[in-house]
Amino acid sequence: MARKTKLNKPEIPQYVLNDFRHLHREEADTSSFGYNNLEREKKIAGMEIYSSEGLRSAVGPLKSDFYRISITLRGSVDVQLGLEQFKHRPGTLSFTFPGQVFSKSNISADTFGYYILFNADFLQEIIPVDKIPEEFPFFDYAGVPFIQLQEAEITAVADFCGKINEELQHHRPGCEKAIRMYLYLLLLEVKRSYVAQQLHLTATDTRSTYLVPRFKKLVSQHFLSKKRVADYAALLGVTPNHLNRMVKEVTGHTASDAIAEMLVQEAKAVLRYTDTSVAEISYQLNFSDPAGFNRFFREQTGQTPLAFRKNA
């Protein structure tokens, strides 16, 4: 096989919506909410909704090319979006957008909620694809992808999930348009709380609410092309020493550790969910050679890439 040149460098694999179910649902799951076990003729393209019944005990790390909304009504779930870690509890929502590395773990036995997956063009009749991050900032790197709602707000969100499910199950005339509108109204309900809670980040915020969270978001966005602390310090307008000191004070780890963690997450996602060779993965992740990638992965995880793949 001919060696690929940099001009032909492939993209990191991302899952598409119609080839994703086997990664998040138990194989023998018989629940019937939303898309789960829905008759083929009732399915619509570009959007899926599920309850947490039948959800696998752990999902990811992986990346997908669609948007995701996770809604917890009962119990607790650990969610990691890039470098940011969150604990879901009743009334919690989190959001991911195409290209993010995402994982769920430690799902408590009493957990119940919903999650919605949709392609970028699903809402294009209501909002242009390129305007989604602007309209709903929790779907943007600069936004906050995690929100805690009040009881009345989470009840309204759950009601919209119920309405979407009802449209899917009955499949009445106009159901696709109704589902798009209910999804938009759900997002609008969340945005109102997001704005009221002033969750957006600004350059005038304090160290703990701006610099370190912004650094984490930048790493999640640029880690494949920017691997030096100095690169992120320049983007944030601070010195590398200052950035390292702030990150260490807030997280207990260095800025370099954070960059390495993001690379490891990406590597684990590709190793676990694809049959891409270790040599090709090292190339995708911008390592100079496979030996360097092997050495890095072993230093970070205590095992070789092939050993991780075998045990994943």
Automatic annotation (TrEMBL):
Protein source organism: Chitinophaga ginsengisegetis
Gene3D superfamilies tied to this protein: Homeodomain-like (1.10.10.60)
A GO term, aspect molecular function: sequence-specific DNA binding
PANTHER family: ARAC-FAMILY TRANSCRIPTIONAL REGULATOR, TRANSCRIPTIONAL REGULATORY PROTEIN
Protein name as annotated: AraC-type DNA-binding protein
Residues in HTH araC/xylS-type domain copies: 213-311
Keywords associated with the record: DNA-binding, Transcription, Transcription regulation
